[in-house]
Prior knowledge:
Blueprint: E1 8-10, H1 13-19, E2 33-36, H2 40-53, E3 57-60, E4 77-80, E5 87-91, E6 96-100, H3 105-114, H4 131-136, H5 144-147, E7 154-161, E8 166-169, H6 183-186, E9 194-202, E10 210-217, H7 223-233, E11 236-243, H8 244-254, E12 266-273, H9 280-292, E13 296-301, H10 305-316, H11 318-322, E14 328-333, H12 339-353, E15 358-364, E16 369-375, H13 382-402, H14 427-440
Helix pairs in contact: 7-9, 12-13
Amino acid sequence: xxxxxxxxxxxxxESLAHYGxxxxxxxxxxxxxxxxxxxxxxxxxxxxxxxxxxxxxVPSGGRTGLSGGAVASSGEVVVSLEKMRELxxxxxxxxxxxxxxxxxxxxxxxxxxxxxxxYPVDWAAAASSQLGGSIATNAGGIRVxxxxxxxxxxxxxxxxxxxxxxxxxxxxxxxxxxGLDLRHLMIGSEGVLGIITExxxxxxxxPPEQSVLLIGFAGLSSIxxxxxxxxxxxxxxxxxxxxxxxxxxxxxxxxxxxxxDGECPYYAxxxxxxxxQASQERALELFERLAEAGHLADGTISQSLTQAKExxxxxxxxxxxxxxxxxxxxxxxVRVSRVPEFLDALDRLVSEHYPEFEVVWFGHIGDGNLHMNxxxxxxxxxxxxxxxxxxxxxxxxxxVRQFEGSVSAEHGVGLLKREDLHYTRSKAEIELMRQIKAAxxxxxxxxxxxxx
Length: 452
């Protein structure tokens, strides 16, 4: 008989290893147990048990994070929300959707589509990510340029605090100016303040038909002029950038041939509104103008939904294709206008200090977010490579500070960047964060060691 009864739990080695980590592989998975509540009330029971027995709880969603935010390496109890996946309400008037926190984001998107609606926040791991985890990390993804982050779509939350209180935050209201909006403290909090058990998400009308441009830049200095021109001439929903190395790894992993002939240093997938292909002529005019100006070296435009998906794959498959190299990732952001200057400075910095490392670049140029992926050489152990990454990071983050950017644009802090918070946040901000943590979780039950 388990002390967690009647809540389902597992303690076998395979389950502990599976649920005790996220996509990072730099820390061992050593939880005491994994528990599977099915309701807010059972989460409250777990918090009460944790307070009584001195347990620490690590909230767990789809564990697709890249910062160690869902790692349990010190005997914590993993609280998996995967059994809490009920759709509570679908409101087509508002419109909005209320669901338990374990509902996969891909399922949320499917349910919205079935109702003739649309949930626009999307990223490569959306199908396996869970709603609560996406809120706790304020997930962004590939269409932030048009639709913003997860934060912009959260209308209400049910949260269990570290004292076992249940908070009903905002209750799905559009207007509610009654003091501090605690809902927004929970969004992006990485599970250190409470466990999200239900959420009400806004939905919108489906976008018009989209087409995709795949373009090759003549050089780094061409990226911002192209972005500026295309954004002014088309209704963009995405402008996703990647380098030549990304192409090589995706081609190697998929066996597919890249659709452009030339070898450009950088590429982008550009998605834009194109109902009935009415914007194709305008897109081609813009492409030709930018090519004549020397900014674009090659490109192609989708002629069908199938072709659009094929072009998107060259961006979306990058993370999976480089995962065997256990990349040391840095998820950075600066103001959009400073992206090329920052990327150039960062590339020179890495080449100078670690010439033996291969770096793959991709990101969301439209919102200033760059993903720097340093690949582990085959003859390096994971431990030694992680140590080298930690040695490199202060130089990278100091450059980020000089550019007044963020050391974590969308992946969060977790374990990976908790020592680096000061590069983006002031001492006063960090102290206030600690005080807020103490107010919601006075005994430090939730996600110990993360963020701070």
